[in-house]
Amino acid sequence: MYAAISKFIKSPIYPFYEWGLVRALDFSKTPHHVGVILDGNRRWAKANPNHSDRHGHKAGANKIIEFLGWCDQAEVRVVTLWLLSTDNFKRSSTEIEELLQIIGLTVDELTATGRWNIKAVGALDLLPDWLRQKLRDLKPIREDGVEVNIAVSYGGRREIVDAVKSYLDSAQSAGRTLAQAKSELSTEDISQFLYTAGQPDPELLIRTSGEQRLGGFMLWQSASSELYFCEAYWPDFRRVDFLRALRAYSLRQRRFGS
To answer: What is the pLDDT of residues 87-138, one digit of tens each?
Structure first.
């Protein structure tokens, strides 16, 4: 009851609070790349009567276009959204099938807007043929706007393993021996074969639902990332929550590991 009353009181105030946050933000310090762990869809469903896990996943998917609009306004250039991890395949086959169908529809909706370049990142070989082909057929549709990475069947460890394998394949194609490839291997080489190769590493990583861990998200790329954890479940994530994350980022003195 207290939470409901508090929400009712705060709702009319939030537009003014958002306005104050926007005025206080220094958009020259906006992160170029923001990664988001879209967590809490199932817990959101359990917290809302008569909602199934499917309703939670769909509510989370519906939030994505709204969120990308906020990124446009904040002049973020790259967004990586973690929709499905490799570990999620341990769930029931029924839930996974429903989730994959929702992801497919979400990709179609994002593409239909014509607003962003959509790219799939992850171990696509683990996906069913219909979704794998849909994701592989994605092509850039504009020269500007936010680049959106849809992380599907994604795991940070798997990404690093795949990068090393790709590096070794490239070395072999170039006629180098294993000993040569090993002696010449550098961190820059690994970066060139990551799923996000050619994009800046994320300066800011956001996780919703109150969990305070990355869970394997962008393990390589997040070495110098600032982390922001939000209590709200992803379907309840608001523009004011995003602005708070940007404010927290802008106030931090980035030391890049020093």
So the answer is: 999 999 999 999 999 999 999 999 999 999 999 999 999 999 999 999 999 9
Measure the CA–CA gap between 87 and 102, rounded to whole angstroms. 18
Give Cα separations from 120 to 70, 84, 103, 135, 177 (angstroms): 21, 11, 11, 6, 32
C-alpha 12/C-alpha 135 separation (Å) is 41
Model confidence, pTM = 0.89
Catalytic residue, chosen from 48, 72, 88, 189, is 88
What are the distances in angstroms from CA 222 to CA 198, 213, 225? Answer: 15, 12, 5
Residue type, 189: D
Q: List domains and CATH numbers for the chain.
A: 31-154+203-249 (3.40.1180.10), 156-194 (no CATH)
| Euclidean distance between CA atoms 62 and 102, whole angstroms | 10
88 given a catalytic annotation: yes
Task: List, in order, residues 6 or more apart from 218 with CB less than 8 Å away.
Answer: 35, 80, 156, 159, 196, 201, 202, 205, 225
